[in-house]
Design brief:
Layout: H1 5-20, H2 26-37, H3 59-67, H4 75-82, H5 84-92, H6 100-109, H7 122-128, H8 130-134, H9 153-170, H10 174-186, H11 196-211, H12 216-224, H13 227-232, H14 250-259, H15 269-278, E1 282-284, E2 295-297, E3 307-309, E4 312-314, H16 321-331, H17 334-348, H18 355-367, H19 372-381, H20 383-386, H21 398-408, E5 412-413, H22 417-425, H23 450-461, E6 468-469, H24 472-479, H25 482-490, H26 496-504, H27 508-514
Antiparallel strand pairs: 1-2, 3-4, 5-6
Helix pairs in contact: 1-2, 3-5, 6-9, 9-11, 9-21, 11-12, 12-16, 14-15, 17-18, 17-19, 18-19, 21-23, 23-27, 24-25, 26-27
Amino acid sequence: MSLSRRQFIAAGAGAVALAGAGCGRPKDWVTETRRLIGKPTAPPLAAVLTPSASSEIDAVSHAINRLTFGARPGDYRRVATMGVEAFIEEQLAPARITDTLCARVIRHEFDSLADPEGSFFRREEDAADPLQKLFPALRGHGARVGDLYEFKDKVLLEDLTRATVLRAVLSERQLFEVMVHFWSDHFNIDPSKAEAKWLKAADDRDVIRSHALGNFRDMVRASAVSPAMLWYLDGRANRVSKAGDKPNENYARELLELHTLGVHGGYTQQDVMEVARCLTGWTVRDRKKFFKGRVEFNARQHDDGTKRVLGIEIPAGLGAADLDRVLEIVASHPQTARHIAAKLCRRFIADEAPEAAIRATAAAFMESQGDIPATLRALFATAEFRAPATRGAKFKRPFHFVVSALRATNAETDATKQLIDYLLRLGHAPFRYATPEGYPEVASHWQNTLLWRWNFSTALAANRIKGTRVAISELRMRVGGDEALMATVLGRRATADEQMAYRECGADVALLLAAPAFQRS
């Protein structure tokens, strides 16, 4: 890929900066320049990479396993030094975490995905980035919603997919990225439908990433008027123009069944229809019109009569405010708190979410009025999350497995076609799930992926994935030998059987990545 003018200027700035610093070997210059211009690369390793010395998954490894997409070399020592509680609090406040490398890679690789108004974390990133201080004009201006139509839809999907992988691999804001993945499934949109092909990129930026560790009510509101969601679940076609017209109930049903109360949330078919009436009149301009992608409310296509949702009357005459009134009712409902809590406990604790943890998490959700960090803080404090029996017992979904392997081996990757092909074969490439419920969480859905996991492990360890490279010999030396490498990957000391298999199989690292212990977090 050729450098853009902005990247070319940045590369020159990087060369000047390195020359002034008296940089050493050419290999170091190339690596550092790649970092400075934002090209995908492996993050620099810490000076000391001491892994776990425990024979079991301890509290430190458990916290890393569940709050991140997998430990990188050196993560165990860092978290053990700061303490699990401090690590949890750090991850719950992503805006305070410097994430310069990841931000620079995304900014320079994907103009289509940049935030035109300045990203949620932009102020902190720019403050930490020497290139932004030297050349403020290098900041990407990004694509406004209407501008996304200027890109080919296949390019946008490729950019979204690659950026999702790179963020999961590179970001220091790991819990934030985990929650982006969680909410992307919760508010799933298949970008193959109609104009969602172009608009999902805005939804990912303005709905999911803007609210992933914010407030649930705000996220539901943003999703309800997301141009991509209005296309995907037919909200744009939900209109009542004359007596006898029936509203389109597609989005209303999924709002209740998937996004808020849950399938057993106690609502009725009448509630679905009443919610649909509340949401009539919202639409989005299509690509044949001026201001394409703009969301609008058409009062003439809105049912402005009295409605009753979950036993609560919504008076006539509210117009567009019907939307906020109905979202207030469903987002603050106890069944919504339970539904979200159960899904979070299934993600962070066990497929069979423990009842006590669900209750504690739901209570925090209700008390905080949907504050996601407060809800997660309560979940991470439960005895069920911290119980030794839950450690190393959660089967990784394929995306998690692939990213954790890249992180464990400190791989350098550009996340292009050959790597994405593995995710496609594993059935878990981002933004490819067709139905609104999103990719399943439970292990039973993913058990048939083991052969492709082995294929991926062998290809990664042998550097047979174009655009992705691991330096195993260098990593082995840096961590302190084979036993330390095994402990780095597994999050604990390898058992005698694991050590024997590692040394005798002839495919040591590939076997380690394909081992049952690495398939679980």
